[in-house]
Automatic annotation (TrEMBL):
Complexes and interactors: Homodimer. Interacts with PriA and DnaT. Component of the replication restart primosome. Primosome assembly occurs via a 'hand-off' mechanism. PriA binds to replication forks, subsequently PriB then DnaT bind; DnaT then displaces ssDNA to generate the helicase loading substrate.
Stated name of the protein: Replication restart protein PriB
UniProt-listed InterPro entries: NA-bd_OB-fold, Primosome_PriB/ssb, Prisomal_replication_PriB
Gene Ontology MF: a single term: single-stranded DNA binding
Any single GO BP term: DNA replication, synthesis of primer
Cellular component annotations (GO), alphabetically ordered: primosome complex
Domain of life, source organism: Bacteria
SUPFAM superfamilies in the record: Nucleic acid-binding proteins
Entry-linked Pfam families: SSB_1 (PF22657)
The keyword DNA-binding belongs to this UniProt entry's keyword annotation: yes
Entry keyword Oxidoreductase: no
Functional summary from the UniProt entry: Involved in the restart of stalled replication forks, which reloads the replicative helicase on sites other than the origin of replication; the PriA-PriB pathway is the major replication restart pathway. During primosome assembly it facilitates complex formation between PriA and DnaT on DNA; stabilizes PriA on DNA. Stimulates the DNA unwinding activity of PriA helicase.
Organism field: Hydromonas duriensis
Length: 114
């Protein structure tokens, strides 16, 4: 039996702007946590047409990823990876649980001449 049948895929990769982040805190078990809000703006292709995609998404980083998010600068762009889950047991709102985060390099010289 394939592991996909046991563990269906839930993986998201987005280019985002970090809008806000909380201070580092620890859970009762001592696990470091940082929460954040990300914004994504882009153009996607759907049935041969370009469609604007623009939204905000709550995120959370735990453990080692919390220190990565803590060092990230609000207002800068990042490529984030993770999985979606409910914000809490009683909520159906989604939140991105970060598993990877890296800055997106901007080519300033070409951006100024475009």
């Amino acid at each position: 039996m394939s592991t996909d049948a046991v563990h269906p895929t839930n993986r998201l990769i987005l280019d985002v702007c970090l809008l806000e982040k909380s201070e580092l805190r620890k859970t009762l078990a001592g696990v470091p946590v940082v929460e954040a809000v990300f914004a994504h703006t882009g153009v996607q292709s759907e049935i041969g047409l370009e469609r604007q995609a623009q939204f905000e998404l709550a995120g959370i980083a735990m453990g080692e990823m919390a220190s990565v998010l803590e060092r990230a600068q609000v207002g800068l762009s990042y490529r984030v990876q993770g999985f979606l889950n409910r914000k809490s047991l009683k909520s159906l709102k989604l939140r991105l649980h970060l598993t990877h985060m890296s800055p997106i390099a901007v080519d300033v010289l070409n951006a100024l001449t475009d």
